[in-house]
Design goal:
The protein has 120 residues and is of the alpha+beta class. It has one domain: rbstp2171 (2-Layer Sandwich). It contains five helices and two strands. A hairpin with a 5-residue loop joins strand 1 and strand 2. The N terminus is likely disordered.
Length: 120
């Protein structure tokens, strides 16, 4: 008997599966953004795994023009086409979003804060 997951087809009710077929492995990044003192909006986007050249460009750009613009370019290079326009609009409204998401995507490539050094 065949595995039913292998035979899943892209349907209008399953856009994530369609994106997986198009891009391969995907990552969903969700961010809670305060709208006011009492309410938050959850913004979620799908990303392809950032390639090493995309990361290298991010590091080079960050040192020349700053973290905000470099992060924006980094995440726009990795977002799936289906979420790109919505992400651009949300970044216009919430400029810090690019840094927050860029940090998460950087972790996929080994960029993280949880590093321990111990003198032996």
């Amino acid at each position: 008997m065949e595995d039913p997951k292998k035979n899943e087809t892209a349907t209008p009710g399953n856009p994530t599966e369609a994106m997986k077929q198009k891009y391969g492995k995907l990552y969903k990044v969700a961010v809670n953004v305060p709208v006011d003192d009492e309410n938050e909006a959850e913004l979620a986007y799908h990303f392809k795994r950032p390639s090493v050249p995309v990361y290298d460009r991010f590091v080079k750009t960050m040192s020349k023009i700053g973290i905000s613009k470099a992060s924006k370019t980094f995440i726009l290079d990795s977002v799936v086409d289906e979420d790109r326009e919505r992400l651009i609009a949300d970044i216009e409204e919430y400029p810090g979003l690019s840094i927050t998401i860029g940090n998460k995507l950087g972790e996929l490539l080994g960029l993280g804060n949880d590093v321990n050094l111990k003198k032996l």
